[in-house]
Amino acid sequence: MQEAKAVEGLERKQKKAVKMEYQKKGRRVLALGIFILLGILGYLKYFDFFTTNLSYLFGHPVLEGWRPENLLMPIGISFYTLQAIGYMTDVYWGTIQAETEIWRTALFLGFFPVIVEGPICRWEDVEDTLFKNESVKAENVFKGCYRIIWGLFKKMIIADRLAVLVDKVYVGYESYSGAVIVAAAISYTIQLYMEFSGCMDMVIGSAGLFGIRLPENFSQPFFAKTCTDFWKRWHITLGVWFKNYIFYPVSISKTARKWNKFTRKHFKGDFGKYVARMGIAAMALFPVWISNGLWHGPKWNYIFYGLYYFGLIFMGLALEPVRDRILAVLHINPECM
Predict the structure, then answer these.
(1) CB of 51 within 8 A of CB of 66?
(2) 35 with 85: CB under 8 angstroms?
(3) Neighbours of 49 (CB within 10 A)
(4) What's the DSSP call for residue 97?
(5) Alpha-carbon 91 to chain mean position
(6) Interval 10-25 mean pLDDT
(7) Is the separation of the CB atoms in 321 and 277 below 8 Å?
(8) Residue 126 half-sphere exposure, CB side, CA atoms within 13 Å?
(9) If DSSP states are collapsed to H, E and C, what string results for 143-178?
(10) What is the spatial distance between Cα 227 and Cα 308, in angstroms, rounded to a whole number?
């Protein structure tokens, strides 16, 4: 609105200059907002991890007195931090209009069912139903209760029962044979899925009681054909957030464009396109999977977990031409796989 008023009656060049100035201001505000939000999250959740590792590296305590040892971790800070960053970025991009009523923004960020377990919602995911103020309907109550009961079944009947086996075997694995350990590993995978998806069912069902629709977070992940497909089905909203606010911005950044220009200049034909695509894929995927690892916790095993999937997905992309050539030679339709 302010930008539209500012350019009224101006010539074309003046309008362009004013718009560029508004874009610069908007970019600064966005950068400041992201810095503050990630700074708070990083200090409360990751400061101990990084300072501990720096202390080991340098052989003496680093920033020992700055650790947030006596501060309480706000419930769900990771979820509403990402939602807030997504909201500000969408406003900056012009995808959505900035909300002028603060209570609506507060409700979006602090809607009680999603605080602890997610899903990570975008404004456009919930705007239609979250602020509708619809009266309670029997149909919504029935569907919501059904979803909640189904989630409780997954969590309490399946996940919690499997946890007994998993905990016993994992604590004393040296006392068991290989078959039992394999069974426990499979049980842990099922337990993790049932616990997380069960909680999502309860969250979505709780919102559904009031006629509020939340985005789904799981879509039969164990039927996925590839690693990429798996992550499109598992914790869907987290993957969408990484794709929208890390992968895409990096893949169209100045660095990516320079790399594309460099490779097209020094490598010819299809090989140049391949090198350009692989370089941009590496640039965009690496921060996504480092962030994915850190999202799960401030531990090295989670970071290596993220790097493991980065390696698998990148290798899958790199070997696509070889796969396509083999399928062509064998006359196999890739859509049938």
Answers:
(1) yes
(2) no
(3) 17
(4) P
(5) 19
(6) 70
(7) no
(8) 29
(9) HHHHHHHHHHHHHHHHHHHHHHHHHHHHHCHHHCCH
(10) 11
Q: Which residue from 85, 204, 114 is spatially nearest to 154, judged by alpha carbons?
A: 204
Say whether 272 sits in a helix, a strand or coil: helix
Between CA 150 and CA 199 the distance in angstroms is: 10
> How high does pLDDT run on average in the chain?
86
Ramachandran sector of residue 98 (left: φ over 0; alpha: ψ -120 to 50; beta: rest): beta
Q: How far apart are the first and last CA of the chain?
A: 51
Tell me the CA distances in angstroms from 192 to 117, 167, 197, 301, one per residue in order: 13, 13, 8, 17
pLDDT per position as a tens digit, 28-46: 999 999 999 999 998 888 8
CB-based contact 289:306 (threshold 8 Å): yes
Give 218's DSSP letter: B
* Preceding peptide of 119 cis, ω within 30°: yes
202: pLDDT strictly greater than 90: yes
Which tokens sit at 245? Answer: 């606010």
Q: What Rg value do the Cα atoms of the chain yield, rounded?
A: 24
CA gap 194, 221 in Å, rounded: 12
In 10 A of CB 182, how many CB atoms? Answer: 12
pLDDT (tens digit, 9 = 90+) per residue, 82-131? Answer: 999 999 999 999 899 888 889 999 989 988 888 878 899 999 988 888 88
DSSP alpha helix (H) spans, the chain: 2-6, 12-41, 47-58, 77-93, 102-110, 123-130, 138-152, 160-171, 178-208, 227-233, 236-242, 248-251, 254-266, 269-296, 300-318, 320-329
Nearest of 79, 121, 87, 109 to residue 214 by alpha carbon: 121
DSSP state letters, 37-79: HHHHHIIIIIHHHHHHHHHHHHTS-SSGGG--TTSPPPTTHHH
